[in-house]
Amino acid sequence: MGSKVTPRPLRLRSIVKMSVVLLTFLLPMSPLRATVFAQEKMKAPYLITYDAHLEEVDALEIGSVFTRGQAEGINPFLSNWTEFEYGATNWWTTELYIDWQHTRDESSLFTGVRFENRIRPWSTAHRVTPVLYVEYEHVNGADKILKEIVGFDGKEDLAAANSEARLEHEREIETKLILSSDIGRWNVSGNVIAVKNLHEGPWEFGYAVGVSRPLGAASGPCTFCRQRFAAGVEVYGGLGEWGDVTFSGTSQYIAPVLLWTLPTDTSIQVSPGWGVTDQSVGFLFRIGVSQEIDNFGHHLKRLFGGS
Fold first, then answer.
1. Does some domain include residue 2?
2. Residue 207 sits in which domain range?
3. pLDDT at 277 over 80
4. Contact yes or no for 267/260 (Cβ under 8 A)
5. What pTM value is reported for the model?
6. pLDDT value at residue 28
């Protein structure tokens, strides 16, 4: 994790604060619904923020997200996480991540694995629907996917050469409280993040906020019509650590995001992002592709001759 540095005044600090205020006041405005929570009811375009919609039961989603990063003082890099997300039940989704990265003028290397679980305590929708998240991470110091920004993580942490950074091993537990609401066709979601290295160091905190909506209402099958697209914006960053919860000296990012879902259940996501503090990576460009396979368990049984 990054070391604390002497902060300079935050640029666009108001963006972060306004986003937190937006989440606080808009989430309770959604009408209370007592119906069974439909999984994947409205697929949000987020790449960083989690909403309350879990994977469909017995569906497997395979996805890969590439991140291109560049900033003054570090070599440009390309990182990737590949994910296997499975809907175990209507209240539990489990997921495996595999990470790697390539840094210009250095090397390419595998950087670790992550095992994630999301649990929805109630099957009915509420004004604010909560989801509990826990993840075990076994990564090395060269990991550069920048999926969660916590504590005082900053671009200085990415400056170490791969040959040195790969020798640092991190075993961490990451927890999140996910709060999400559908307000008409809009989705507003917020995540509060807490990460703890199992061997040393304090709890580190971060957040992510996302607002999005589909571009059109549902209609017949099509490929390029508006209802196949969703757009939104994410704001995320670090919140310091135990005993020093703050925005000062942290990395903060803002990123619009666009999702295109094809009739074949293939999804493509694109998101340019900008760091808005001196500690942030200046520019991040993410692109993701995923494919959902329904009735995955049934297909496995057929493949191996099961009844």
1. no
2. 13-303
3. yes
4. yes
5. 0.85
6. 40
Contact 150, 238 (CB under 8 A): yes
pLDDT score at 267: 96
Q: What is the CATH number of the domain that holds 249?
A: 2.40.160.40
Mean pLDDT of 195-217: 95
Number of domains in the chain: 1
* Of 162, 150, 140, the residue nearest 252 (C-alpha): 150
Q: What distance in Å separates the CA atoms of residue 158 and residue 259, rounded to the nearest whole number?
A: 29
Q: How many CB atoms lie within 10 A of CB 22?
A: 15
Give residue-wise pLDDT tens across range 3-56.
444 444 444 454 445 444 444 444 443 333 334 444 445 589 999 999 999 999
Q: Is residue 238 part of a domain?
A: yes
pLDDT of 105 strictly over 60? yes
Q: Which residues contact 24 (CB under 8 A, 6 or more apart)?
A: none
In a domain, 129, yes or no: yes
**Phi-psi label, residue 31: left if phi above 0, alpha if psi -120 to 50, beta otherwise:** beta
